[in-house]
Amino acid sequence: MTEPTVQSVPLETMLPQVSTLSMQTFCEDMDGMLGISISCALCQAAPGTLDRLKPFFPKFAAVYSVKAQGTLSGRFDLLLDKNALFLLAGTIVMLPEDKIKEQCKQGTLENALKLSDTIKEIGNLIVGAWDRIFREQMPGHKHLLQTNTQILNLWDKPANIFGFKEDTTCLLIVWEMTMGDYPPFHGAAVFPAALFEPPKEEPAPAEAPAQTPAESAAAPAQPEPAAVQPPQPSEPADAALVCPQTQESTDPHPVWNAIQQRVRSAPDAIYAAPLDAAVLNCPARVFMNPKPLWLSPNDSVETARQRMQQNNTRYALVEEKDQLVGILSQGDVQAALSPYLRTPFEEYRRPLDEASLQIRIRWFMSRPVHTASPDTPMWKLMDIMCRHQIRAVPIQDAGGTVTGLVTVTEIFQTLLKTLTGGSPAVQPEPTKDCIKTD
Amino acid sequence: MPKSLMIVDDSATMRKIIMRTVRMSGLEFDRTEEAGNGAEAIEKLKASPVDIVLCDINMPEMPGTEMVKQARQLPNCQNTKIIMVSTESAQDLINSVLASGANGYITKPFTPEKFQEQLAPFMS
Fold it and tell me: A410 CB contacts (<8 Å, ≥6 apart)?
Protein backbone atom coordinates (compact mmCIF):
# COMPACT_ATOMS: atom_id res chain seq x y z
CA MET A 1 0.00 0.00 0.00
CA THR A 2 1.31 3.42 -0.85
CA GLU A 3 2.43 5.53 2.10
CA PRO A 4 0.40 8.66 2.68
CA THR A 5 2.30 11.81 1.83
CA VAL A 6 2.30 14.99 3.84
CA GLN A 7 2.89 17.41 1.01
CA SER A 8 0.48 20.28 0.75
CA VAL A 9 1.45 21.29 -2.75
CA PRO A 10 0.61 19.01 -5.69
CA LEU A 11 3.54 17.10 -7.13
CA GLU A 12 3.31 18.69 -10.57
CA THR A 13 3.57 22.11 -8.95
CA MET A 14 6.41 21.14 -6.68
CA LEU A 15 8.48 19.31 -9.29
CA PRO A 16 9.75 22.29 -11.31
CA GLN A 17 11.27 23.79 -8.16
CA VAL A 18 12.67 20.57 -6.75
CA SER A 19 13.96 19.44 -10.15
CA THR A 20 15.66 22.76 -10.79
CA LEU A 21 17.30 22.59 -7.39
CA SER A 22 18.38 19.03 -8.20
CA MET A 23 19.89 20.04 -11.52
CA GLN A 24 21.68 22.97 -9.88
CA THR A 25 23.02 20.56 -7.29
CA PHE A 26 24.37 18.34 -10.04
CA CYS A 27 26.15 21.40 -11.44
CA GLU A 28 27.60 22.13 -8.00
CA ASP A 29 28.71 18.51 -7.67
CA MET A 30 30.55 18.76 -10.98
CA ASP A 31 32.18 21.94 -9.74
CA GLY A 32 33.21 20.29 -6.47
CA MET A 33 34.55 17.12 -8.04
CA LEU A 34 36.04 18.39 -11.24
CA GLY A 35 36.35 22.13 -10.94
CA ILE A 36 33.87 22.50 -13.81
CA SER A 37 31.74 25.55 -13.21
CA ILE A 38 28.30 25.12 -14.76
CA SER A 39 25.32 27.41 -14.37
CA CYS A 40 21.79 26.17 -14.80
CA ALA A 41 18.67 28.25 -15.42
CA LEU A 42 15.10 27.09 -15.76
CA CYS A 43 14.03 27.52 -19.34
CA GLN A 44 10.58 25.97 -19.41
CA ALA A 45 8.29 24.08 -17.09
CA ALA A 46 4.91 23.30 -18.56
CA PRO A 47 2.61 20.46 -19.44
CA GLY A 48 2.79 19.34 -23.05
CA THR A 49 3.58 16.53 -25.41
CA LEU A 50 7.04 15.30 -26.37
CA ASP A 51 7.14 17.29 -29.60
CA ARG A 52 7.53 20.41 -27.49
CA LEU A 53 11.07 19.24 -26.77
CA LYS A 54 12.03 19.07 -30.45
CA PRO A 55 13.46 22.57 -30.68
CA PHE A 56 15.67 21.94 -27.67
CA PHE A 57 16.80 18.47 -28.75
CA PRO A 58 16.90 18.64 -32.54
CA LYS A 59 19.64 16.05 -32.84
CA PHE A 60 20.67 13.10 -30.76
CA ALA A 61 20.63 13.16 -26.98
CA ALA A 62 21.13 11.00 -23.94
CA VAL A 63 18.01 9.70 -22.24
CA TYR A 64 18.48 8.53 -18.68
CA SER A 65 15.52 6.50 -17.44
CA VAL A 66 14.94 6.85 -13.73
CA LYS A 67 12.78 4.68 -11.51
CA ALA A 68 11.31 6.67 -8.65
CA GLN A 69 10.00 5.13 -5.47
CA GLY A 70 8.00 6.92 -2.82
CA THR A 71 5.91 10.03 -3.31
CA LEU A 72 6.79 10.03 -6.97
CA SER A 73 6.36 6.46 -8.03
CA GLY A 74 7.19 5.25 -11.51
CA ARG A 75 9.46 6.07 -14.38
CA PHE A 76 10.58 9.44 -15.60
CA ASP A 77 13.40 10.44 -17.92
CA LEU A 78 16.22 12.95 -17.82
CA LEU A 79 17.70 14.26 -21.06
CA LEU A 80 20.95 15.90 -22.06
CA ASP A 81 21.37 17.35 -25.52
CA LYS A 82 24.22 16.78 -27.96
CA ASN A 83 26.32 19.70 -26.76
CA ALA A 84 25.96 18.57 -23.16
CA LEU A 85 27.26 15.12 -24.03
CA PHE A 86 30.39 16.36 -25.75
CA LEU A 87 31.02 19.13 -23.24
CA LEU A 88 30.58 17.16 -20.04
CA ALA A 89 32.04 13.88 -21.23
CA GLY A 90 34.86 15.63 -23.08
CA THR A 91 35.78 17.62 -20.00
CA ILE A 92 35.69 14.58 -17.74
CA VAL A 93 38.00 12.58 -20.00
CA MET A 94 40.11 15.71 -20.37
CA LEU A 95 39.85 16.23 -24.11
CA PRO A 96 41.51 19.43 -25.32
CA GLU A 97 39.22 22.47 -25.44
CA ASP A 98 39.52 22.74 -29.22
CA LYS A 99 38.48 19.14 -29.64
CA ILE A 100 35.45 19.62 -27.39
CA LYS A 101 34.35 22.69 -29.32
CA GLU A 102 34.81 20.87 -32.61
CA GLN A 103 32.70 17.97 -31.39
CA CYS A 104 29.97 20.33 -30.24
CA LYS A 105 29.81 21.69 -33.77
CA GLN A 106 30.38 18.59 -35.84
CA GLY A 107 30.22 15.62 -33.52
CA THR A 108 28.14 12.69 -34.70
CA LEU A 109 26.12 10.09 -32.89
CA GLU A 110 29.01 7.71 -33.52
CA ASN A 111 31.39 10.09 -31.75
CA ALA A 112 29.01 10.31 -28.81
CA LEU A 113 28.67 6.54 -28.60
CA LYS A 114 32.43 6.27 -28.18
CA LEU A 115 31.96 8.28 -24.97
CA SER A 116 29.07 6.13 -23.80
CA ASP A 117 30.79 4.92 -20.61
CA THR A 118 31.41 8.50 -19.54
CA ILE A 119 27.94 9.60 -20.60
CA LYS A 120 26.43 6.81 -18.55
CA GLU A 121 28.49 7.86 -15.54
CA ILE A 122 27.26 11.43 -15.96
CA GLY A 123 23.77 9.98 -15.63
CA ASN A 124 24.78 8.32 -12.35
CA LEU A 125 26.02 11.65 -11.06
CA ILE A 126 22.84 13.44 -12.12
CA VAL A 127 20.57 10.84 -10.58
CA GLY A 128 22.70 10.83 -7.41
CA ALA A 129 22.28 14.59 -7.06
CA TRP A 130 18.56 14.35 -7.77
CA ASP A 131 18.13 11.61 -5.20
CA ARG A 132 19.77 13.70 -2.50
CA ILE A 133 17.59 16.72 -3.20
CA PHE A 134 14.41 14.66 -3.48
CA ARG A 135 15.17 13.17 -0.05
CA GLU A 136 15.59 16.65 1.39
CA GLN A 137 12.73 18.40 -0.36
CA MET A 138 10.05 15.85 -1.07
CA PRO A 139 8.26 14.26 1.87
CA GLY A 140 7.76 10.55 1.37
CA HIS A 141 10.52 10.18 -1.21
CA LYS A 142 12.36 6.87 -1.01
CA HIS A 143 14.79 6.33 -3.83
CA LEU A 144 15.74 7.20 -7.39
CA LEU A 145 17.46 4.55 -9.45
CA GLN A 146 18.95 5.02 -12.90
CA THR A 147 17.64 2.08 -14.87
CA ASN A 148 18.76 2.72 -18.43
CA THR A 149 20.84 5.03 -20.60
CA GLN A 150 20.10 5.57 -24.27
CA ILE A 151 22.12 7.72 -26.66
CA LEU A 152 20.13 8.23 -29.82
CA ASN A 153 17.99 10.45 -32.00
CA LEU A 154 14.85 11.10 -29.98
CA TRP A 155 12.54 11.59 -32.89
CA ASP A 156 12.91 8.32 -34.81
CA LYS A 157 10.66 6.31 -32.51
CA PRO A 158 9.99 8.38 -29.40
CA ALA A 159 7.30 6.01 -28.17
CA ASN A 160 9.87 3.21 -27.97
CA ILE A 161 12.36 5.43 -26.18
CA PHE A 162 10.05 6.85 -23.56
CA GLY A 163 7.66 3.95 -23.25
CA PHE A 164 4.48 5.89 -23.91
CA LYS A 165 2.59 7.29 -26.88
CA GLU A 166 3.81 10.52 -28.43
CA ASP A 167 0.58 12.34 -27.65
CA THR A 168 0.80 11.53 -23.95
CA THR A 169 0.70 14.58 -21.71
CA CYS A 170 3.86 15.10 -19.69
CA LEU A 171 5.27 17.71 -17.39
CA LEU A 172 8.24 18.96 -19.40
CA ILE A 173 11.00 20.86 -17.65
CA VAL A 174 13.88 22.26 -19.66
CA TRP A 175 17.02 23.96 -18.43
CA GLU A 176 19.65 25.91 -20.25
CA MET A 177 23.08 25.31 -18.87
CA THR A 178 26.30 27.12 -19.60
CA MET A 179 29.86 26.15 -18.95
CA GLY A 180 32.62 28.68 -19.49
CA ASP A 181 32.63 30.08 -22.99
CA TYR A 182 31.36 26.87 -24.52
CA PRO A 183 28.04 26.93 -26.34
CA PRO A 184 25.05 26.59 -24.00
CA PHE A 185 23.38 23.24 -23.74
CA HIS A 186 20.03 21.90 -22.60
CA GLY A 187 18.89 19.38 -20.09
CA ALA A 188 15.31 18.28 -19.56
CA ALA A 189 13.09 16.14 -17.42
CA VAL A 190 10.04 14.32 -18.75
CA PHE A 191 7.45 13.33 -16.18
CA PRO A 192 4.47 11.50 -17.73
CA ALA A 193 1.13 12.68 -16.39
CA ALA A 194 0.44 9.17 -15.12
CA LEU A 195 3.00 9.80 -12.38
CA PHE A 196 0.71 12.38 -10.83
CA GLU A 197 -2.37 10.25 -10.69
CA PRO A 198 -3.47 9.52 -7.15
CA PRO A 199 -3.03 5.90 -6.10
CA LYS A 200 -6.03 3.94 -7.25
CA GLU A 201 -8.18 2.43 -4.53
CA GLU A 202 -10.21 -0.65 -5.30
CA PRO A 203 -13.67 0.17 -4.00
CA ALA A 204 -16.64 -2.07 -4.57
CA PRO A 205 -18.16 -1.28 -7.97
CA ALA A 206 -21.46 -0.16 -6.50
CA GLU A 207 -19.72 2.34 -4.21
CA ALA A 208 -17.27 3.67 -6.74
CA PRO A 209 -17.47 7.47 -6.76
CA ALA A 210 -18.05 9.18 -10.04
CA GLN A 211 -14.90 10.67 -11.57
CA THR A 212 -14.73 14.40 -11.13
CA PRO A 213 -14.11 16.61 -14.13
CA ALA A 214 -10.70 17.50 -12.71
CA GLU A 215 -9.68 13.88 -12.39
CA SER A 216 -10.97 13.20 -15.83
CA ALA A 217 -8.91 16.05 -17.25
CA ALA A 218 -5.79 14.90 -15.44
CA ALA A 219 -6.04 11.31 -16.59
CA PRO A 220 -3.58 10.67 -19.41
CA ALA A 221 -5.75 8.08 -21.06
CA GLN A 222 -8.41 10.64 -21.95
CA PRO A 223 -6.62 13.95 -21.92
CA GLU A 224 -8.53 17.12 -22.60
CA PRO A 225 -7.10 18.11 -25.94
CA ALA A 226 -7.22 21.80 -25.16
CA ALA A 227 -5.53 21.28 -21.82
CA VAL A 228 -2.53 19.48 -23.23
CA GLN A 229 -1.99 21.49 -26.37
CA PRO A 230 1.23 23.48 -26.11
CA PRO A 231 1.02 27.15 -26.96
CA GLN A 232 1.41 27.88 -30.63
CA PRO A 233 4.90 29.05 -31.47
CA SER A 234 3.66 32.04 -33.43
CA GLU A 235 3.50 34.14 -30.28
CA PRO A 236 5.80 32.79 -27.58
CA ALA A 237 4.81 33.87 -24.10
CA ASP A 238 8.25 35.13 -23.23
CA ALA A 239 11.96 34.80 -23.68
CA ALA A 240 12.23 31.70 -21.55
CA LEU A 241 9.96 29.82 -23.89
CA VAL A 242 11.85 30.75 -27.01
CA CYS A 243 13.62 27.69 -28.27
CA PRO A 244 16.60 27.43 -30.57
CA GLN A 245 15.08 27.00 -34.00
CA THR A 246 16.42 24.40 -36.34
CA GLN A 247 17.21 25.58 -39.82
CA GLU A 248 14.72 23.18 -41.28
CA SER A 249 11.83 24.43 -39.17
CA THR A 250 9.24 26.90 -40.36
CA ASP A 251 10.35 30.30 -39.27
CA PRO A 252 7.60 32.15 -37.39
CA HIS A 253 9.82 35.12 -36.59
CA PRO A 254 11.58 36.01 -39.84
CA VAL A 255 12.65 39.48 -38.78
CA TRP A 256 13.95 38.47 -35.39
CA ASN A 257 15.74 35.43 -36.78
CA ALA A 258 17.24 37.42 -39.62
CA ILE A 259 18.71 39.80 -37.07
CA GLN A 260 19.93 36.87 -34.99
CA GLN A 261 21.64 35.31 -37.99
CA ARG A 262 23.30 38.55 -38.97
CA VAL A 263 24.56 39.23 -35.47
CA ARG A 264 25.73 35.65 -35.01
CA SER A 265 27.49 35.46 -38.32
CA ALA A 266 29.25 38.79 -38.38
CA PRO A 267 28.69 41.40 -35.70
CA ASP A 268 31.63 43.37 -37.03
CA ALA A 269 30.06 43.48 -40.46
CA ILE A 270 26.90 44.90 -38.95
CA TYR A 271 28.89 47.46 -37.10
CA ALA A 272 30.53 48.48 -40.32
CA ALA A 273 27.34 48.57 -42.35
CA PRO A 274 26.81 52.23 -43.15
CA LEU A 275 23.04 52.00 -43.47
CA ASP A 276 22.47 50.50 -40.00
CA ALA A 277 25.53 51.65 -38.17
CA ALA A 278 24.00 54.62 -36.43
CA VAL A 279 21.07 52.85 -34.87
CA LEU A 280 22.93 49.62 -34.18
CA ASN A 281 25.61 51.55 -32.34
CA CYS A 282 23.07 53.35 -30.22
CA PRO A 283 24.10 52.87 -26.57
CA ALA A 284 21.73 51.18 -24.16
CA ARG A 285 21.32 54.25 -21.97
CA VAL A 286 19.51 55.98 -24.86
CA PHE A 287 16.74 53.46 -25.43
CA MET A 288 16.58 51.42 -22.22
CA ASN A 289 13.58 51.46 -19.90
CA PRO A 290 14.93 53.48 -16.96
CA LYS A 291 12.19 52.39 -14.57
CA PRO A 292 11.81 48.62 -14.70
CA LEU A 293 9.60 46.75 -12.29
CA TRP A 294 11.38 45.40 -9.21
CA LEU A 295 10.28 42.45 -7.10
CA SER A 296 11.63 40.62 -4.07
CA PRO A 297 12.61 36.93 -4.28
CA ASN A 298 10.13 36.27 -1.49
CA ASP A 299 7.22 37.69 -3.46
CA SER A 300 4.65 35.11 -4.49
CA VAL A 301 3.62 34.18 -8.00
CA GLU A 302 0.33 35.93 -7.34
CA THR A 303 2.07 39.17 -6.40
CA ALA A 304 4.36 38.97 -9.41
CA ARG A 305 1.44 38.39 -11.75
CA GLN A 306 -0.56 41.28 -10.33
CA ARG A 307 2.34 43.73 -10.38
CA MET A 308 3.29 42.81 -13.92
CA GLN A 309 -0.28 43.42 -15.00
CA GLN A 310 -0.47 46.72 -13.11
CA ASN A 311 2.80 47.90 -14.63
CA ASN A 312 1.98 46.54 -18.07
CA THR A 313 5.31 44.80 -18.35
CA ARG A 314 6.47 41.32 -19.23
CA TYR A 315 9.68 41.44 -17.21
CA ALA A 316 10.63 42.19 -13.63
CA LEU A 317 14.01 42.42 -11.97
CA VAL A 318 14.48 40.67 -8.65
CA GLU A 319 16.37 42.43 -5.90
CA GLU A 320 17.66 41.20 -2.55
CA LYS A 321 19.81 43.27 -0.21
CA ASP A 322 20.28 45.91 -2.91
CA GLN A 323 21.65 43.33 -5.30
CA LEU A 324 20.20 42.15 -8.59
CA VAL A 325 19.68 38.45 -7.95
CA GLY A 326 17.37 37.37 -10.76
CA ILE A 327 15.04 38.25 -13.57
CA LEU A 328 11.50 37.11 -14.07
CA SER A 329 9.43 36.97 -17.21
CA GLN A 330 5.71 36.73 -17.65
CA GLY A 331 6.29 33.30 -19.14
CA ASP A 332 8.13 32.18 -16.01
CA VAL A 333 5.09 33.21 -14.00
CA GLN A 334 2.69 31.41 -16.34
CA ALA A 335 4.81 28.27 -16.21
CA ALA A 336 4.84 28.30 -12.41
CA LEU A 337 1.08 28.50 -12.21
CA SER A 338 -1.10 25.45 -12.33
CA PRO A 339 -2.63 25.29 -15.84
CA TYR A 340 -6.03 24.82 -14.25
CA LEU A 341 -5.92 28.40 -12.99
CA ARG A 342 -6.20 29.58 -16.58
CA THR A 343 -9.66 30.61 -17.68
CA PRO A 344 -10.31 27.88 -20.28
CA PHE A 345 -9.74 25.15 -17.70
CA GLU A 346 -11.56 26.86 -14.84
CA GLU A 347 -14.17 24.14 -14.58
CA TYR A 348 -11.49 21.53 -13.85
CA ARG A 349 -9.85 23.59 -11.13
CA ARG A 350 -9.01 21.86 -7.86
CA PRO A 351 -8.51 23.57 -4.51
CA LEU A 352 -4.83 22.64 -4.53
CA ASP A 353 -4.27 24.47 -7.81
CA GLU A 354 -4.63 27.68 -5.83
CA ALA A 355 -1.50 26.69 -3.91
CA SER A 356 0.68 27.39 -6.93
CA LEU A 357 -0.16 31.09 -6.51
CA GLN A 358 1.86 31.10 -3.31
CA ILE A 359 5.13 29.79 -4.80
CA ARG A 360 7.93 32.24 -4.14
CA ILE A 361 9.56 33.62 -7.23
CA ARG A 362 13.05 32.82 -5.95
CA TRP A 363 12.35 29.21 -6.96
CA PHE A 364 11.90 29.83 -10.64
CA MET A 365 13.38 33.22 -11.50
CA SER A 366 16.20 33.12 -14.04
CA ARG A 367 19.71 33.42 -12.74
CA PRO A 368 22.49 34.21 -13.18
CA VAL A 369 21.45 37.41 -14.91
CA HIS A 370 23.30 38.55 -18.00
CA THR A 371 23.85 42.30 -17.71
CA ALA A 372 25.42 45.01 -19.84
CA SER A 373 26.79 48.48 -19.22
CA PRO A 374 24.88 51.68 -20.17
CA ASP A 375 27.35 52.22 -23.02
CA THR A 376 26.75 48.84 -24.61
CA PRO A 377 25.63 49.37 -28.21
CA MET A 378 22.43 47.88 -29.53
CA TRP A 379 24.19 45.34 -31.73
CA LYS A 380 26.08 44.02 -28.73
CA LEU A 381 22.88 43.69 -26.73
CA MET A 382 21.35 41.77 -29.61
CA ASP A 383 24.40 39.54 -29.65
CA ILE A 384 24.09 38.91 -25.89
CA MET A 385 20.41 38.07 -26.32
CA CYS A 386 21.13 35.67 -29.17
CA ARG A 387 24.00 33.92 -27.49
CA HIS A 388 22.16 33.40 -24.22
CA GLN A 389 18.69 32.92 -25.72
CA ILE A 390 17.21 35.72 -23.64
CA ARG A 391 15.06 38.70 -24.46
CA ALA A 392 15.83 41.09 -21.63
CA VAL A 393 19.14 42.48 -20.39
CA PRO A 394 19.42 44.65 -17.26
CA ILE A 395 21.72 47.63 -17.64
CA GLN A 396 24.21 47.98 -14.81
CA ASP A 397 26.75 50.76 -14.37
CA ALA A 398 30.34 50.33 -13.28
CA GLY A 399 29.33 50.72 -9.64
CA GLY A 400 26.92 47.80 -9.91
CA THR A 401 23.77 49.93 -9.85
CA VAL A 402 21.05 48.80 -12.21
CA THR A 403 20.01 51.83 -14.23
CA GLY A 404 17.51 50.26 -16.58
CA LEU A 405 16.33 47.32 -18.61
CA VAL A 406 16.52 46.62 -22.32
CA THR A 407 14.10 44.11 -23.78
CA VAL A 408 13.51 43.17 -27.40
CA THR A 409 10.61 45.58 -27.33
CA GLU A 410 12.90 48.57 -26.75
CA ILE A 411 15.20 47.34 -29.51
CA PHE A 412 12.40 46.84 -32.01
CA GLN A 413 10.80 50.17 -31.15
CA THR A 414 14.10 51.93 -31.75
CA LEU A 415 14.72 50.07 -35.00
CA LEU A 416 11.21 50.74 -36.24
CA LYS A 417 11.42 54.44 -35.42
CA THR A 418 14.62 54.63 -37.41
CA LEU A 419 13.28 52.64 -40.34
CA THR A 420 10.09 54.67 -40.52
CA GLY A 421 11.79 58.00 -40.13
CA GLY A 422 10.66 58.72 -36.57
CA SER A 423 14.26 59.14 -35.55
CA PRO A 424 15.06 58.42 -31.90
CA ALA A 425 17.88 60.14 -30.15
CA VAL A 426 20.52 58.06 -31.81
CA GLN A 427 24.09 59.04 -31.30
CA PRO A 428 26.48 56.88 -33.28
CA GLU A 429 29.53 55.82 -31.38
CA PRO A 430 32.75 56.87 -33.08
CA THR A 431 34.74 53.67 -32.63
CA LYS A 432 34.06 50.22 -31.35
CA ASP A 433 37.12 50.29 -29.11
CA CYS A 434 35.71 52.93 -26.84
CA ILE A 435 32.61 50.89 -26.11
CA LYS A 436 32.81 48.97 -22.89
CA THR A 437 30.69 45.88 -22.50
CA ASP A 438 30.73 43.20 -19.90
CA MET B 1 57.76 8.57 2.14
CA PRO B 2 56.58 7.30 -1.28
CA LYS B 3 53.01 6.06 -1.36
CA SER B 4 50.96 3.98 -3.74
CA LEU B 5 47.24 4.14 -4.51
CA MET B 6 44.74 1.78 -6.12
CA ILE B 7 41.30 2.92 -7.35
CA VAL B 8 38.69 0.19 -7.67
CA ASP B 9 35.50 1.05 -9.54
CA ASP B 10 33.61 -0.68 -12.34
CA SER B 11 33.27 2.61 -14.21
CA ALA B 12 36.40 3.73 -16.03
CA THR B 13 35.02 7.25 -15.99
CA MET B 14 34.54 7.25 -12.25
CA ARG B 15 38.11 5.98 -11.85
CA LYS B 16 39.26 8.95 -13.91
CA ILE B 17 37.16 11.34 -11.87
CA ILE B 18 38.48 9.97 -8.59
CA MET B 19 42.05 10.12 -9.84
CA ARG B 20 41.57 13.68 -10.98
CA THR B 21 40.00 14.75 -7.70
CA VAL B 22 42.75 13.09 -5.68
CA ARG B 23 45.31 15.02 -7.71
CA MET B 24 43.36 18.23 -7.11
CA SER B 25 43.56 17.53 -3.37
CA GLY B 26 47.31 17.99 -3.52
CA LEU B 27 48.09 14.45 -2.41
CA GLU B 28 50.90 12.83 -4.36
CA PHE B 29 51.47 9.17 -5.05
CA ASP B 30 54.48 7.64 -6.70
CA ARG B 31 52.43 4.74 -8.09
CA THR B 32 48.75 4.47 -8.99
CA GLU B 33 46.81 1.37 -10.04
CA GLU B 34 43.26 0.83 -11.25
CA ALA B 35 40.95 -2.17 -11.09
CA GLY B 36 37.50 -2.64 -12.61
CA ASN B 37 36.09 -4.92 -9.90
CA GLY B 38 36.92 -6.54 -6.59
CA ALA B 39 38.31 -9.74 -8.08
CA GLU B 40 40.71 -7.86 -10.31
CA ALA B 41 41.76 -5.71 -7.35
CA ILE B 42 42.53 -8.79 -5.22
CA GLU B 43 44.65 -10.28 -8.02
CA LYS B 44 46.60 -7.04 -8.35
CA LEU B 45 47.03 -6.69 -4.59
CA LYS B 46 48.37 -10.24 -4.38
CA ALA B 47 50.99 -9.43 -6.98
CA SER B 48 51.84 -5.97 -5.70
CA PRO B 49 50.29 -4.43 -2.59
CA VAL B 50 49.57 -0.72 -2.29
CA ASP B 51 49.37 1.66 0.65
CA ILE B 52 45.89 3.03 0.03
CA VAL B 53 42.85 1.61 -1.80
CA LEU B 54 39.84 3.71 -2.80
CA CYS B 55 37.05 1.27 -3.50
CA ASP B 56 33.48 1.50 -4.80
CA ILE B 57 30.87 -0.66 -3.06
CA ASN B 58 28.44 -1.60 -5.81
CA MET B 59 30.40 -3.51 -8.42
CA PRO B 60 29.66 -6.59 -10.49
CA GLU B 61 31.49 -9.88 -9.88
CA MET B 62 32.78 -8.90 -6.45
CA PRO B 63 31.29 -6.01 -4.47
CA GLY B 64 33.54 -3.71 -2.48
CA THR B 65 32.55 -5.17 0.89
CA GLU B 66 33.65 -8.63 -0.20
CA MET B 67 36.87 -7.21 -1.60
CA VAL B 68 37.69 -5.68 1.78
CA LYS B 69 37.19 -9.02 3.53
CA GLN B 70 39.38 -10.87 1.03
CA ALA B 71 42.05 -8.16 1.08
CA ARG B 72 42.28 -8.47 4.83
CA GLN B 73 43.12 -12.15 4.41
CA LEU B 74 46.14 -11.31 2.26
CA PRO B 75 49.35 -11.29 4.32
CA ASN B 76 50.80 -8.38 2.37
CA CYS B 77 47.69 -6.17 2.79
CA GLN B 78 47.47 -6.05 6.56
CA ASN B 79 48.61 -2.43 6.63
CA THR B 80 46.82 -1.32 3.49
CA LYS B 81 44.34 1.46 4.20
CA ILE B 82 41.06 0.82 2.42
CA ILE B 83 38.63 3.73 1.97
CA MET B 84 35.20 3.01 0.52
CA VAL B 85 33.66 5.50 -1.93
CA SER B 86 29.93 5.34 -2.56
CA THR B 87 26.75 7.29 -3.15
CA GLU B 88 25.12 5.27 -0.36
CA SER B 89 25.03 7.28 2.83
CA ALA B 90 22.94 5.09 5.15
CA GLN B 91 24.72 4.91 8.51
CA ASP B 92 23.99 1.18 8.89
CA LEU B 93 25.80 0.45 5.66
CA ILE B 94 28.75 2.63 6.61
CA ASN B 95 29.01 0.88 9.97
CA SER B 96 28.92 -2.57 8.38
CA VAL B 97 31.56 -1.61 5.83
CA LEU B 98 33.84 -0.25 8.53
CA ALA B 99 33.23 -3.37 10.62
CA SER B 100 34.28 -5.55 7.68
CA GLY B 101 37.75 -4.02 7.72
CA ALA B 102 37.57 -0.72 5.83
CA ASN B 103 39.48 2.22 7.29
CA GLY B 104 37.23 5.01 6.06
CA TYR B 105 34.21 5.99 4.00
CA ILE B 106 33.72 8.82 1.52
CA THR B 107 30.30 9.62 0.11
CA LYS B 108 29.77 10.91 -3.41
CA PRO B 109 29.86 13.64 -4.48
CA PHE B 110 33.35 13.87 -3.17
CA THR B 111 35.58 16.91 -3.25
CA PRO B 112 39.34 17.35 -3.13
CA GLU B 113 38.88 18.49 0.47
CA LYS B 114 37.15 15.25 1.41
CA PHE B 115 40.02 13.20 -0.02
CA GLN B 116 42.53 15.43 1.73
CA GLU B 117 40.72 14.99 5.04
CA GLN B 118 40.41 11.21 4.76
CA LEU B 119 43.73 10.31 3.15
CA ALA B 120 46.17 12.78 4.65
CA PRO B 121 46.38 10.93 8.02
CA PHE B 122 47.56 7.85 6.13
CA MET B 123 50.19 9.68 4.13
CA SER B 124 52.69 10.28 6.90
Answer: A287, A288, A289
